[in-house]
Write the structure tokens for this entry.
Amino acid sequence: MKKVYSRIESITGNVITVRAEDVQYGELAQVSTRFGVSLAEVIRLADDEVSLQVFAGGRGISTGDEVRFLGHPMQVSFTDSLMGRIFNGAGEPRDKGPELSENLIPIGGPSVNPANRIIPREMIRTGIPMIDLFNTLVKSQKLPIFSVSGEPYNQLLARIAMQAEVDLIILGGMGLKYDDYLFFKDTLEQGGALSKTIMFVHTASDPVVECLMVPDISLAVAERFALKGRNVLVLLTDMTNFSDAMKEIAITQEQVPSNRGYPGDLYSQLAARYEKAVDFSDAGSITILAVTTMPGDDVTHPVPDNTGYITEGQFYLKNGRIEPFGSLSRLKQQVNGKTRPDHRAIMDGMIKLYASYKDTLEKKAMGFQMSSWDAKLLKYGELFEQEMMDLSVNIPLEGALDKGWEILASCFDPQETGLRTELAEKYWPKARA
Amino acid sequence: MTKTNGSVTGVNGNMVTVRVEGAVSMNEVAYIETRGKRLKSEVIRIRGDLVQVQVFEMTKGIRVGDPVAFTGEMLAVELGPGLLGQIYDGLQNPLPEVAAKVGHFLEPGVYLEALPRDRAWAFTPAAKPGDKVRAADLLGTVPEGAFTHRIMVPFGFLGTYTVKSVAPAGSYKVTDRVAELQGEDGTVHPVTLMFQWPVKRAVTCYAERLKPVEPMVTHVRLIDTFFPVAKGGTYCIPGPFGAGKTVLQQITSRHADVDIVIVAACGERAGEVVETLKEFPELLDPHTGRSLMERTIIVCNTSSMPVASREASVYTAVTMAEYYRQMGLDVLLLADSTSRWAQAMREMSGRLEEIPGEEAFPAYLESVIASFYERAGIVRLADGNTGSVTIGGTVSPAGGNFEEPVTQATLKVVGAFHGLSRERSDARKYPAIHPLESWSKYSGILSAEAVRYAHAVLARGAEVGQMMKVVGEEGTSLDDYVVYLKSEYLDAVYIQQNSFDPVDAAVSPERQKSVFSMVIGVLGTAFRFKDKDEARDWFYKLRQGFLDLNGSEWKSDRFAQVEKGLRTLIGERKTGLDPKAARILETLEK
């Protein structure tokens, strides 16, 4: 039986210190306050002085409250009964279901040996043409959605969760508005995807320390399922809230800030999470899709900036659409040569024409005369935005490719598209020609 | 000297405080024993009997009171035959062997021998009993891949030694004794095929350091012609994310004209290392015809691996580079990215509660970066041969802003600056090295005057381009417009290079010289045009022709045919040649 300590030496922000012996770095403790019991994690040892970060926050803790050390670091239960369940950042049920305590696994484990990684090779179909066709999501990829606040990024995540061809979805919510949490819950429930989903949700009103646990818990569970051969998609929203929680705690601990108040290890902390994305040669995989809101649409802000250096591309969500410019899937080349012979050609060709459309729009705005070619481009651009870019469009890749040819055929002659003749001969819709 | 012991008194992140009894030296290696594991760490501060160590592993689970054993040795790497083709982490653990032992994950506390102990090497003695030798002198050789690996007197042997015995030719393992050396004080030291050397000490066993003059050919036109790197020189590649830093490093690691390439993947994505890991064994080195992996060592401490060993990884890499330099070889060290290494220092400095400098980087950032790059160099060895270490480091500046401390500290010490630009990479102009902002202090494969001439056209063209944005094409004179077209042409056909094209990916110096003189010919020629449209159309045609040329095998019939077509095309419009360009062309053709 572990000793109980009943004298708290100091309380600063969310951090308390007690004098205790035989405590491990990273160990968990229970703090019993008059508001209930909260978990706390050891974040510093100095002789017999132990600093703990209290999950529920420091508010209301009395110097006479009890601290009981549990002898193990943060753990989460790993069983098949996790499926369909919803937990908070401390791993406690949020959905009135029973607490799970069997087969506990540690979180935040070591990194995968780079020598054991393999080159990514399979695409994940989402039914969203702007992803499947233009910036293909690849199994084991880590990809953020850069977005200004106010964009429908959570709607996009929910849709991907519903449609992505994976075995299991883990949703990690950080600083979610309560409405957004309910939105995810309802959407997944109605779509029938809840049974293959596990949610770890920290809402904006929950203690900030729990926010820090969400990615680690989600990824620890994902890792175990992947090792059992499942293909797991981890959705994290929003990593900027996670970074801000880190900032808040670093500052209260009097760490020297490096850039706009963020701690100096922001890059390593984010990388430790994103690098959990992996494809095991002899088991399943983890793919990470994470929302990063950009304060002020500024991609040089420390969070999106550091994220960009870590991830394999990004989706740029702007004006309710995934922007073709600025979005990039660095791994798409690994897979889009193997889908259909016209995939790459349609991808490049349609984007080039869309870029010309943008130029034409600019010319039009400046009052220049529109040629017949410009008129074609204007028609094309509108069709492209409506039938490809709109987030409500929901067609499989092959359908999107056919649709692409159709749009092209309704606006241009084959030789105007710059597409190779043999492809045009094969795919150009005959009825219209 | 007895080994010092201590016990843990505090833990803060990956920094552990230890109370010790006895002597401790700075940067000494200590092992923390916790839960049956031994975690490697390095002494980074000593205050009285309290010593602070940075732990090369996650510190979860360490308790106050855990025993700590000090080794008396600084952090060192093993040097000997068998390094080539290996994949190490920042502490020189062979990663494939670690995977074979503990599976998918990098479990803490697993340290394996860097050099294979069971492999036998064919040793040929070179020294004989009675010889007087000093550190780094030759004792014998073993063949390693395409190289003759020199077995040397360990670098730590100070003073003069007398060879007492040398093993006869035969098959030996790295730990077998191949010689005995007697010191001036009479003690006899056994020497094996391998020895250890502390990574943070530069190897200085050479006669003199020379000035780097000979170009290190990378087969990238923009680098070799405009911003060359010398053998034994240093260069840096700063750039925002997505500008192609890593791709440029990968291309260089494939095509660079050196004997050995050491890739230090320091704090970057694991996926990128995997590409190198899986592709290099399949690719052939054009010089030796052997697998590229046989001339490569990969040190990989990716972003999610422990931060302290990230800091060590660049030193591990440079020490191995210096070792092969001592054999008279040319070694290229590619460090990607030095910013992550600097950030590792920043994390540690924060934990030590040091007074922060700019952006919280420690005040000693500049001197540490400088002393790292200063380990590059070309040296004349005691036997008269020369060997070199060239260092190329990428920098990942926050927000792509080059004004930040790491970029600035690096620019002070390097000989060439290849700044990548977001605009160029967005416009898909690769390599995205900015031709007007970058610089090099080394001389390249072409005369400086010729390069300056082309560079001037480029700068002038950019000015015209800027002006045209304001006054429009109508407000630009035809002469200015032609200068603009010339600079665009130079950019498209010479500065940009298609790394996916089998021919264009690597361009030999000979070919660069020949094509560059053709380009100078165009830049220096006055042409006759009716109006801007005609000029533009003609230059588009010229550009297309040159791109065809770039895609044709050097000295093939097709190359000759395209070249002939281009010369006719130029001849049709030519009205004269700038005398300066004519003079340059004369010297180029010599």
Q: What stands out?
A: Chain B has 15 helices and 28 strands. Chain B has four domains: 5-74, 84-105+206-440, 120-193, 448-589. The two ends of chain B are 67 Å apart (CA to CA).
